[in-house]
Write a structure and sequence with these properties.
15 helices, alpha/beta, six-stranded parallel sheet, Dihydrodipicolinate Reductase, domain 2, 2 domains, globular, Rossmann fold
Length: 426
């Protein structure tokens, strides 16, 4: 007996892969309107290096698809930093805001798109304000520093969906042709079931800032945010989240648990570790080794490698698979720079009224990194359920201090420098 509702397996798998990808396969180039190109007014919250980089990326994206961008309004904690970016883009003083509440003033401006690029501790708060204001959103990764913040972003993603807003995250590998191609092939069985692999972000340490004479705690933390886990989540969250995101994407879900270790030996400010090593259990028969390190003068490696029952693949590189030639893998045409492509996809989603929403996936990847950090800080096994469903877990309601509200209320107390977690004593 035949059933017209039965979908052929290959077609079904293609549909699953397409539905699971955060980025839609929108064309690289958009057809211009017959009269004038569409113009978008945008605002930037966070005028540091990544924020200015995002402005460059979205301007390049606009040129690629034939639309225009106006940098209309800016906000930053520091007045001089906001003023510097304003000068570069000719933004008048009345549309430039500073201080811990500056994002609120920016959201009141007549802009369509907002770019969120402040230290990670603020991102859930700023995302909520952007959604409430009805803005289309680009949000940098990671999106939280603790479980409460990550779960909040998941909730906010649903609110954005209800409003028809796009939320595109700075997980640029999901917007690059090599990763899109390999993930599609993996989802269609090219290497069988993933049973193991390694993901790595090993490189030198980032900058750090000594405290200026008489500098307040809030200013010191924002200026030196990459040194404090309360501000960045630690580098396993702030940086290695990219590789963890690829693992979750290729395997299809977050890990069940994490066990690991790490330590600190080189840093001069803050309270973060220098290195982490994790065993991530995705299922009984799938374990991924995750490692990240920020130590100068050591071997550098940033990549992902997965072992399947019928082949192997790098995240965006070479795949060894006897089945690959049998698959009808589509061609993914993307910009050479994934950080530009993510903005092309954001702009096209608005133009085509096809909202993209990566809030949940970036929140899950952020929470995966947080799970790993807690496991290494404490020396304990930490389960996904400890952070998502088990309200009695000691880590379920973990909230890093100071909070965004502390900055807005001028009640920030900075953690002490060079005081860091010791596994077994936390």
């Amino acid at each position: 007996m035949t059933n017209s509702l039965i979908i052929p397996r290959r077609k079904f798998l293609k549909n699953v892969a397409a539905a699971g990808a955060v980025v839609s396969t929108l064309p690289l180039f958009n057809v211009r309107a017959q009269d004038a190109p569409r113009k978008f007014k945008i605002g930037l919250v966070g005028c540091g290096g990544r924020g200015n980089g995002a402005l460059e990326n979205i301007n390049e994206a606009a040129k690629s698809i034939g639309v225009e961008i106006e940098v209309y309004t800016l906000a930053d904690f520091f007045p001089d930093r906001a003023a510097s970016t304003a000068k570069k883009y000719n933004v008048p003083d009345e549309r430039v805001f500073s201080g811990p509440k500056a994002y609120r003033q920016l959201m009141e401006q007549p802009i369509e798109i907002v770019l969120l690029a402040t230290p990670p501790v603020f991102r859930a708060t700023h995302l909520e304000a952007a959604i409430n204001a009805g803005k289309q959103i680009f949000i940098e990764k990671p999106v939280a520093v603790d479980p409460v913040g990550a779960r909040k972003v998941m909730e906010l993603g649903e609110a954005a969906k209800a409003k028809g807003l796009s939320v595109v995250a700075g997980t640029q590998r999901r917007h690059q042709s090599g990763y899109l191609r390999n993930q599609y092939a993996v989802a269609n069985g090219a290497i069988g079931k993933i049973v193991g692999g390694t993901i790595r972000w090993c490189g030198g340490r980032l900058w750090y800032k000594e405290r200026n004479a008489g500098e307040g705690d809030a200013s010191y933390l924002v200026r030196n945010w990459t040194s404090f886990s309360e501000m960045s989540g630690d580098h396993i969250v702030e940086q290695h989240v990219h590789n963890l995101d690829v693992a979750n994407w290729f395997i299809g879900h977050p890990p069940q648990s994490a066990v690991g270790f790490g330590g600190r030996a080189r840093r001069k400010t803050g309270d973060q570790f220098d290195f982490f090593s994790l065993d991530l259990q995705y299922s009984d028969d799938c374990h991924i080794h995750s490692m990240c390190r920020q130590v100068n003068g050591t071997y550098n490696a940033v990549d992902e490698f997965f072992i399947g029952t019928e082949g192997t693949t790098f995240g965006g590189g070479k795949m060894q698979s006897a089945k690959l030639a049998q698959l009808d893998v589509p061609e993914f045409k993307t910009h050479d720079n994934g950080q530009v492509q993510e903005h092309i996809d954001l702009l096209n989603s608005i133009i085509k009224n096809q909202p993209l929403n990566g809030a949940r996936t970036v929140a899950e990847s952020t929470l995966t990194a947080i799970m790993g950090r807690i496991a290494c800080y404490t020396g304990q096994m930490v389960r996904w359920s400890d952070l998502t469903t088990d309200t009695k877990s000691p880590w379920y309601n973990l909230t890093m201090l100071p909070t965004p509200a502390d900055f807005e209320n001028d009640s920030v107390v900075a953690p002490k420098d060079d005081i860091y977690p010791i596994p077994g004593e936390v």
